[in-house]
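Record 1 of the preview.
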Amino acid sequence: MSIVCGLPILECVYCLACARWVWQKCLYTAGHESENWGLATAEEFENVPRLCRLILFGYEEDICNPLWAPPGGYGINPDWVFLRKDYEDTLGRVTPYMIYLDHDNADIILAVRGLNLAKESDYAVLLDNKLGQTKFGGGYVHNGLLKAAEWVFDAECEVLRELVERNPNYSLTFTGHSLGAGVVALLTLVVVQNLGKLGNIERKRIRCYAVAPARCMSLNLAVRYADIISSVVLQDDFLPRTTTALEDVFKSLICLPCLLCLTCLKDTCTLEEKMLKDPRRLYAPGRLYHIVERKPLRLGRFPPVVRTAVPVDGRFDHVVLSCNATSDHALIWVERESQRALDLMREKDKIMAIPTNQRMKRQEYLAREHSQEYKAALQRAIALDIPQAFSPHTYGTFHEMEGGENSGKSREEILSFNRRRESWDGFVGRLFDEDDSGHMVFKKS
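->
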């Protein structure tokens, strides 16, 4: 009888807990994730709007007579389009892409388009993945996106090699949106693993900008390659936060809000320590640039602010319940808001009237700051015992710019320095056995 009387109280407690959770999630916005990150500068962010326009330019059927140009135009010279491939050329292995020689910015750019909702082959690429299915470079990656990246590398390796050797002072940039962003992120990993096939191009000449990317690589890879891979996310974009199987996402487009709520509940109830320790869990790649333009319980859009970091904890782990979760994924909105943010940064710099020499010093300081933040993220990952979180001595443009405490050390030395201390008894037990007479002898194996 006493148990029956306690049921109403238990129901009230349960309802209050659910109401509290819903209230907290409704107040939780994407701005909370990056509120402690540093502000991005115009120098490091200036490439983003230009590359967004280049990806948009790839959707035009007639590049000489574009129909969907954003305000101000694409700023693209059709004569500099070196190569362009459509679905007929890619055989459905990857979305259409093009190679563009940007002589104004001394850049060789490979731009990959995003998911086409009318193409089954794009779904096949995105949905070809199971948890922990594919290992790469000491971590886990998205299986379908890796296959697409390897196909692009095999198809365009000779072309890129020729362009790199013909333009030794040009950088090599990979960029894409949505599904294309995941492809170029993994393509960057493939290129770094095969630098010899591109004429031994220096790692510091390689860059990647993944716009609204799918989660495509494990945390250790996301941190280790943060020196050359950057992800751009607009406010509440759902895809970089979606940890649920993408197959379930696209099966549930009719009731996407229900799926987002269930995913949000799952992520909220999962311990962060458990999420970080799971080596198979995929994340948005590299350094993160978060464009924030809305605030909780306020109407309208505010002047966009861009915050950046190489986070280990809180790397877009929670879905945001927002009516803009899907619209913020649109490339046209990312381009528009990134350009607004860049204009505000430049206007602020103009007001401050920074001389050229001071601007150069600021760029050097920015490089050192990024280097320190990159190393701190690696150390944080190692402290959390995230598998394969070390940074091999052969990697990293930041190590080339600035000698660190681990510079000159081998991979084994770095690993031994950061490995957990084990007890003396455990050490002896691992190396010795006790024979019948009670003496210690080396283990045979």
